[in-house]
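Regression test case RT-17, inverse folding.

Input:
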């Protein structure tokens, strides 16, 4: 089972993927989290991608494809499949993923596009707080932590991501519209795309995503 969550920066992919992954027993694989973990560990890859991420640009396809395919193809047994968040985000990445899955006798079973207007995204990202240790996502107003500034799960001090500055968000949105938005047509053409309005309360979005996720799983197993 391989499901992709598509959408602009700040659409709520991470928020929803954490919930959906648990509900559907899918391994949540976030390319952004993978790269941030590499940076936090000070690896060569982390050093290589730091400036690119902080500028709001996409890291080169060969780099991210290698990193993500290794994870997609080594699925731990306790999961029924993967829920991809942030990968693929160019046509080149989507084609590489299709080829690798086909070789492994797998395929993309469903893709869900979370649609959110740019102006909503800017407000959401400006209020986002993230846990640098476990990746939990909060919002100062919409989804505040129980204790101000501390992660509910592990008590770590919450941070604003360095790429959440308004000027970087503009770059990330431009990269999305130029390089990632065309993936909707790519997957629509393969008959696997569903769309959900992401500009609704978190629980409403979750309800709709869960129903779509369950129908993708049902279809794939029939
Ligand atoms: P990445 O971490 O993937 O960032 P992104 O795609 O820009 O997505 P975000 O994490 O910003 O947002 P999200 O959609 O997960 O929203 P969230 O749930 O946090 O990538 C970072 C960088 O890594 C890239 O810029 C690039 O450099 C590099 N990279 C990663 N993948 C790559 C790839 N494949 N190729 C090349 N480069 C790559 O929600 C946002 C906020 O809104 C939160 O505060 C949340 O609480 C709130 N919120 C969520 N849902 C709602 C709702 N329904 N209503 C109100 N508020 C909400």
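Golden output:
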């Amino acid at each position: 089972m391989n499901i992709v969550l598509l959408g602009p920066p700040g659409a709520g992919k991470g928020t929803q993927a954490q919930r959906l992954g648990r509900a559907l027993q899918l391994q949540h694989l976030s390319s952004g989290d993978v790269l941030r973990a590499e940076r936090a560990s000070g690896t060569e890859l982390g050093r290589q991608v730091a400036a690119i991420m902080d500028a709001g640009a996409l890291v080169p396809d060969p780099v991210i494809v290698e990193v993500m395919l290794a994870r997609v193809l080594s699925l731990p047994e306790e999961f029924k499949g993967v829920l991809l968040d942030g990968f693929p985000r160019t046509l080149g990445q989507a084609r590489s993923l299709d080829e690798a899955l086909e070789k492994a006798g797998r395929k993309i079973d469903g893709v869900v596009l979370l649609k959110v207007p740019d102006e909503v995204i800017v407000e959401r990202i400006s209020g986002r707080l993230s846990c640098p240790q476990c990746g939990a996502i909060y919002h100062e107003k919409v989804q505040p932590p129980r204790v101000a500034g501390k992660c509910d799960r592990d008590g770590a001090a919450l941070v604003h991501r360095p790429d959440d500055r308004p000027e970087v968000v503009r770059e990330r949105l431009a990269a999305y519209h130029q390089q990632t938005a065309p993936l909707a047509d790519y997957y629509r053409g393969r008959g696997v795309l569903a769309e959900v309005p992401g500009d609704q309360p978190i629980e409403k979005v979750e309800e709709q995503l869960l129903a779509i996720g369950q129908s993708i799983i049902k279809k794939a197993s029939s």
